[in-house]
């Protein structure tokens, strides 16, 4: 039986520990180090989100970027007030309808149908597509500028006279107000029709139909009586 001296045993233990440490260092996986320096870092993902916030147009939209920026600028609060001050009343009204229809996902014919019925000028295809290409969240905020414009309009009017309603379209307000200009003076409302919800066609208002029927009856009575008294002037 051989007895290993204690001094040799201590040297062997030290050598074994050093060997195991070197081996462990060699086979240590470097995944953790690579994971810390992954090419898809948090900074890169944040920069992508920032780019999305700065871009006003919808991704993949094939439109004229210059026209989109121009139409977006016209929907700004300051630009709307400037157009109104310059007397471009109908233009402001047309922009409101076009923006709301585009935001709702409707097409150009639906927008121009409302615009022309209220006496406005139809929006072009290029302008409508430019408005529609604006991000929905940004377009929604720009639509709120019309509410601020209505408050601005009402602030310059005396008392509660001729105020525009919060839910009233600007073009409708302008169309009604044009009947009270300096050239035409005050006049009675000539709106004797309304748009039917069933076929989108004009129908005679019931109150107007009643007045017309009353006039016809009165004329008929006058003609019937005049048959017995020819001397009545016709």
TrEMBL record:
Biased composition, class Acidic residues, residue ranges: 48-65
Region of interest called Disordered, as start-end residue ranges on this chain: 20-65
Name of the molecule in the record: Uncharacterized protein
């Amino acid at each position: 039986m051989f007895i290993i001296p204690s001094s040799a045993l201590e040297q062997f233990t030290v050598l074994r520990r050093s060997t195991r440490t070197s081996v462990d260092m060699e086979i240590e996986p470097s995944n953790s180090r690579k994971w810390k320096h992954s090419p898809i870092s948090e900074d890169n993902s944040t920069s992508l989100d920032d780019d999305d916030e700065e871009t006003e147009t919808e991704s993949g939209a094939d439109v004229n970027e210059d026209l989109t920026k121009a139409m977006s600028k016209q929907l700004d609060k300051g630009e709307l007030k400037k157009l109104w001050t310059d007397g471009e009343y109908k233009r402001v009204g047309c922009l409101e309808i076009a923006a709301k229809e585009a935001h709702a996902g409707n097409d150009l014919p639906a927008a121009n149908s409302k615009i022309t019925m209220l006496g406005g000028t139809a929006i072009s295809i290029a302008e409508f597509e430019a408005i529609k290409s604006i991000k929905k969240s940004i377009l929604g905020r720009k639509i709120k500028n019309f509410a601020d414009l209505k408050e601005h309009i009402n602030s310059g009017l005396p008392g509660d006279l001729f105020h525009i309603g919060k839910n009233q379209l600007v073009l409708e307000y302008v169309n009604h107000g044009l009947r009270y200009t300096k050239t035409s003076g005050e006049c009675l409302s000539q709106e004797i029709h309304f748009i039917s919800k069933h076929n989108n066609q004009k129908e005679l208002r019931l109150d107007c139909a009643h007045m017309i029927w009353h006039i016809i009856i009165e004329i008929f009575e006058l003609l019937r009586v005049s048959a017995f008294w020819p001397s009545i002037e016709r």
